[in-house]
Amino acid sequence: MGVKLCECGCDQPVNNPRAHYIRGHNRSVKGVRISRGKCKCGCGLEIPATEPSGTLHYPGHYKSPGRPRKKGRYVRRDGYVLIKKPEHPFAQCGGNIFEHRLVMEQHLGRHLESGEVVHHINGIRDDNRLENLVLLKRSKHQALHNHKKEYRSESHKKAWETRRKRYGPKGYKNKPGRKS
Q1: Sheet with 73-75, edge to edge strand ranges
Q2: How far apart are CA 155 and CA 167, in angstroms?
Q3: Per-residue confidence at 112, pLDDT binned at 50, 70, 90?
């Protein structure tokens, strides 16, 4: 049996006998990469085939139209915006700090304390305007979010009400040795 060649057309040998392509070549034709389409931000760049399927933007571009990524600014998958400030005393290991915390610190003229939390009033995590931010103690912030408990469905709500009747306000039994 001869050497198996990559089926993309690049004519390179495939090391794995069960594979049809060299890793990364399955989305190319005759060595030319297929694009996943144009970036949805309007920049006109082609999204490389190496990006995961369903990718709508060129790597490093914002999800909103017409706003390419600013250097030193990063939007996480959960919506929070990080700013590159390695000199900040509370910077994470990558040198990043949350933008909403920086906005509040600049407004107050001091660094935030460990028990202080910046809350987004409208719930939109990348809306870091000062009018949308409020400074709370950690306990007040937790109480605010616990108060707005949402249920997936009416049956889910009913199940939790039954559990609270049976086990108390938390809705579950304490394990042996755990304090209430």
Answers
A1: 73-75, 81-84, 96-98
A2: 18
A3: very high
Q: Is the pLDDT of residue 67 over 50?
A: no
**Quick check: pTM over 0.90?**
no
- In sequence order, the 6+-apart residues with CB closer than 8 A to the CB of 52 are none
Residue 25 scores a pLDDT above 60: yes
Task: For tokens 């700013």, name the residue.
Answer: 83
Instruction: Find the mean pLDDT for residues 22-34.
Output: 57
Among candidates 131, 143, 133, which has minimal Cα distance to 81?
133
Q: What is the DSSP secondary-structure string of the chain?
A: ----B-TTTT-PBPSSTT-SS-TT-TTEETTEEPP--B-TTSS-PBPPTTSPTT--S-TTB-SSTT-BPPTTEEE-TTS-EEEE-TTSTT--TTSEEEHHHHHHHHHHTSPPPTTEEEEETTS-TT---GGGEEEEEHHHHHHHHHHT---SSHHHHHHHHHHHHHH-TTSSPPPTT---
Token reading at 89 = 């005393």
User: Within its chain, how far is the Cα of 144 from the centroid?
Assistant: 23
